[in-house]
Amino acid sequence: MSHAFSPDILKSTLRAPAASSTAVAAMNPWSMVPPLGNLDAYISAVNRLPMLTLEQEQEFSKKLKEHNDLDAAGKLVLSHLRLVVSISRKYLGYGLPHGDLIQEGNIGLMKAVKRFDPEQNVRLVSYAMHWIKAEIHEYILKNWRMVKVATTKAQRKLFFNLRSMKQGYKDDADAATHRDTLTESQIDAMAKTLNVKREEVIEMEQRMSGGDVLLDPSPGDDGEDAFGPIAYLADSAQEPTALMESRQHDSLTTHGLSTALQELDPRARRIVEERWLNVNDDGSGGMTLHDLAAEYKVSAERIRQIEVAAMKKMKKVLASYA
Q1: pTM over 0.85
Q2: Are residues 138 and 157 in the same domain?
Q3: Taking 70 as the threshold, does the pLDDT of residue 220 lie above it?
C-alpha cells in the first residue's frame, strides 16, 4: 500500500506553509476508525460516522482556513470517508485491492479538505469527489500494468471509459453476436463521443486487451524451465565467457593454426590441408586417403599414419593458445 491513513498523514497533508507555524493540539477522533487491514470493519465503521450539516461544514472549514485547525480538518475528513468507500467500489474491476483504492481515495479527500473554500457556496462532497477520483485514477494508471497504458490526456480518457462503453455495446447487441473487439461503427461512435481520434481508440483497445508477460518466469511445478522473453532478449554473444571463447577461437584459427602448420614438413602439411582445411561445408573439395596415396605412391594406410602424427604435433602447438 502506498500510504498509511492516519492523523500523521492528515497533519502532513494539511500542514500550512512554513510562514504560518500555528501550533494546534490534535485530538484523537481516529480511534473510531479501525485500520484498513480489517476492511469489513473499516467500511462498517465509516458508514456509522455522522454526516455534517451545512452549518457544521461551514464552521469547520472556516476554522481550518483561518486558524489551521487540524481538529476541524479531522472532522471534515471523517464525515466524508464513506464517500471514498462509495467511489472506490466503482474501480474494483481493475483487479486492484479495495483497501489500496480506499487509501488512495483518502489521500485525495485530505487534499480536497486542505484546498476547500467555504466561501464558494459549494458542498465539500461535490468538491472532494473530483480529488478522490483523480487520486484513484493516478494510482490505477501506475499500478494496473507494469508498462503504462495511458500517458496523454486522451489516453487517460479512453482508459477510464473504454471498458464501460464497450460493455454497453455488448449489452445492446444480441447475445449470439457478442464479440470481444469493437466493430468499425463502434470505434467511430466511441471516438465521436469522447472527442478523440479513432486511431487512439484502436490503440487503447489493443493495449488493454494485451496481457502482461513475465520477463523471466520461474520454473513450473514440474521443475521444467518456463519460457519467457528473457530467453530471446538476452545477447549471449556479449557474455564474458562467450567473448573469451570467441577470442580463443579466433586466435586458434589464425595465429595458432598458422604456427602449427609451420611445424610440419611439406608432405604432412599438404595432407592435413587436403584432408581438413580444403573441405567445403557441403563435403566437397579436399582429397581422400586414396587420392593422396596415389599422388605420393604410398599406401592409404601410410597416408593415414602421416596424418595422425601430424595432428598430434599440431595439437601440442595449439595447446599453448588454449
Answers
A1: no
A2: no
A3: no
